[in-house]
Amino acid sequence: MDPNVGTERQRPAPRFRLSLRARAAWQVPRTRTLFTRPSASPQRVLLQRFYFVAGLCALAFLVLYFDRDELRDAENRTLGMIDVAYFTMVTVATVGYGDVVPVTARARMIVSFFIVPIRIVIWFVFLGTAYQLVIQRVIEEFRMGRLQKQLRDHVVVCGYGLTGSVAVRELLESGVDPGSIVVIDQQEAALEAATALGVTGLLGDPSRESVLQQAQVRAAKAVIIAVSDDPTAILLTLSVRSIAPSTKVVVRIQEHVFQRQLRQAGADVIVSSTKIGGLLLADGVQSRYLVPFINDLLSTRGRVSLVERPAAQHEVGCATNAVASAIVIGLVRDGNVLSFYRDAHCTINQGDTLIVIQSMRTTGTARE
Question: Which fold would CATH assign to domain 42-146?
Answer without folding.
Answer: Helix Hairpins (1.10.287)
